[in-house]
Specification:
This protein has 185 residues and is α/β, with parallel strands linked by helices. Helix content is 12%, strand content 30%.
């Protein structure tokens, strides 16, 4: 799980408002009381709104019987711990994968280069691409989640001078700005 805060910036607040609009649109397609309410968790440090992304490392085979399995990258699973958890019923697929990039300026163009996820630190300014997905839970209710597709490092200088030099973990919060990037299928 990754939680992003825009620290009250207008662009991030606009994105949160748009995410709320998407929830409202999703809500119309479910019977009453079947879609859990979507709540935003405020940032512990600033009290500003956040977005939380939930990605799964694995897919259950009965949920995607025709989907092809892919390998974990060595950056995501350097000790093969996740790879060792793969079974005939549990596999890693493209929908489980998150891409990690850094944006460089070359002349007048932007170039995106692949980077390992360990590069990201607290305080980095990033761009994310994500989608909305509804999961059916064992209670026969649905829950709407944000699923991350990619994270692009835009600027690291704020993290470089901050006191927070730890690499992000699943429970950490990244302060970021967000440019409206919605994946359309």
């Amino acid at each position: 799980m990754i939680t992003l805060s825009g620290l009250g910036t207008d662009s991030f607040e606009h994105t949160v408002d748009r995410a709320n609009e998407v929830f409202t649109k999703f809500h119309r397609f479910f019977p009453e009381n079947k879609l859990q309410e979507w709540s935003l968790t405020p940032c512990n440090w600033t009290g500003t709104r956040t977005l939380t992304f939930t990605n799964h490392y694995f897919t259950q085979r009965h949920e995607a019987p025709l989907t092809q399995a892919i390998q974990f990258s060595t950056e995501v699973d350097p000790a093969n711990i996740l790879t060792d958890m793969i079974t005939a019923m549990l596999f890693h697929a493209d929908d489980n994968k998150v891409a990690y990039y850094e944006r460089y300026k070359e002349d007048l163009a932007s170039v995106h280069c692949y980077i390992p996820p360990q590069t990201f630190c607290l305080g980095d300014i990033i761009d994310v691409q994500f989608c909305f997905i509804a999961y059916r839970m064992h209670t026969k209710q649905y829950v709407l989640k944000l699923m991350l597709y990619s994270i692009t490092l835009i600027e690291a200088k704020f993290a470089d001078v901050s006191k927070h030099t730890d690499v992000i973990t699943d429970a950490d919060v990244i302060a970021c700005t967000y440019r409206n990037t919605f994946r359309r299928n």
